[in-house]
Amino acid sequence: MVIGGGTGLPVILRGLRDQDADVTAVVTVADDGGSSGILRNYINVVPPGDIRNVLVALSELPQLELDVFQYRFRSSDQFFAGHAIGNLIISALSEMKDGIFPAVQELSSMMRIRGHIYPVANEPLTLNAEFTDGTKLSGESEISAAHKQIKRVWVTPSNDQDGHPVKPVPEVIQAIHEADQIVIGPGSLFTSILPNLMIKEVGDAVCQSKAEVVYICNIMTQKGETDHFTDADHVRVLNDHLGKNFIDTVLVNIQPVPKNYLDFKQWNEISQPVGHDFQGLRQQGCRVISSNFLRLKDNGAFHDRDRVVAELLNRLHEVHD
């Protein structure tokens, strides 16, 4: 099982699919930026962007059909400007099927998905944050744009003014209980990973699971979220939010990122390589696997999919042998 959102999750999922792993992806529904945010505001659906990318990662459709699903209209197209066709299809199916969960299951069949894709909840969620200066904000894009140090985050139902607790999709909890390995990340710590775990039943199920919980630590820090964070800081935030040291193993990249290679204008969310604090990780009870997990591409620093997946499968075999 892989829990997360954003751009890092599909990369790992595609690698696991290619190794014939039995994959369940649990995807955040708290995105409110870009095409997803516009659709969410206009037709009140769960934001489809992260789900669209996960569908493509696990699909066995021909590449042309996936390219059509991913096609994003040009900015000159006015009404459709910036929208991906897949986002429109997911939104339409959500209305037809009365919810994002049945819509994604229908699409999974249509797109020949290998594995399972579960939106973490069947309703749009709002991400809320309290910053270290005591101020609070709501909305993932607003929180990221504030560029202030985050103290804690939590999620609330977007369509409920009474504040009823967020209910996860029951299949998500069952999948967590049945998982042989729970992988968290890579992805934005506060805005892609924690929105899933902040649903109480989801966080409790992960903490109670007998499966090994593996955190894939980000290679670069993120502006406005994790500036100056070490790998131990990332894990500490996760553990603090869930109230216990639940991360068993951490994958850490130790291959240096060449400074002159990165294009900070193109990749304007990244700040600097994540620092290392192996003692801090061990103090939190983590097994540390440090290796070269780096892939340099398009003047950016990413995880090497094949190396990460090989390590995840190694851990799975070691635990169960």
TrEMBL record:
Primary location class? cytoplasm
Pfam families xref list: CofD
The subcellular location is: Cytoplasm
The reply to whether Cytoplasm figures as a keyword in the UniProt entry is yes
Q: Name one GO molecular function term.
A: LPPG:FO 2-phospho-L-lactate transferase activity
Biological process terms from the Gene Ontology for this record are: regulation of cell shape
InterPro entries registered for this protein in UniProt: CofD, CofD-like_dom_sf, Gluconeogen_factor
Q: Which GO terms describe its cellular component?
A: cytoplasm
Keyword annotations: Cytoplasm
Q: Which residues form a coiled coil?
A: none
Q: Which SUPFAM superfamilies match?
A: CofD-like
Q: Record's HAMAP family?
A: Gluconeogen_factor (MF_00973)
What the record says about family reads: Belongs to the gluconeogenesis factor family.
The UniProt function text for this chain reads:
Required for morphogenesis under gluconeogenic growth conditions.
Protein name (database record): Putative gluconeogenesis factor
